[in-house]
Design goal:
Elements lengths: L3 E4 L2 E2 L13 H11 L5 E9 L3 E9 L12 H12 L4 E7 L3 E9 L1
Amino acid sequence: AKRLNLSFPYSGDKSGKSISPLLLLPFIENAFKHGIQDTSGWITIDLKVDSNFLYLKVENSYIIPVKGKAPGLGLANVKRRLELAYPEKYNLAIKQSKDIYSVDLKLAF
């Protein structure tokens, strides 16, 4: 609808490559949960696969909540899953500013 501006470019050959099931879902789910405010928002999901790595960048519009809200378990759980399944084979950067929230993940196959 008009509430959301969504961009999802992807590239690369994924044949013969796999990752842990539902590993990327919390990043994308959070973008939808927090990227759409009362009337509008935007989300960009950029996925690239090359011979050795998967790259995921998720950015979304973000407004810092007026009330402090306790963080959920989704990101903590996915960080733990990454550590268990891909020790020393990933790089995760999460950044938050006044109006943008971004997640950058580089994962070795």
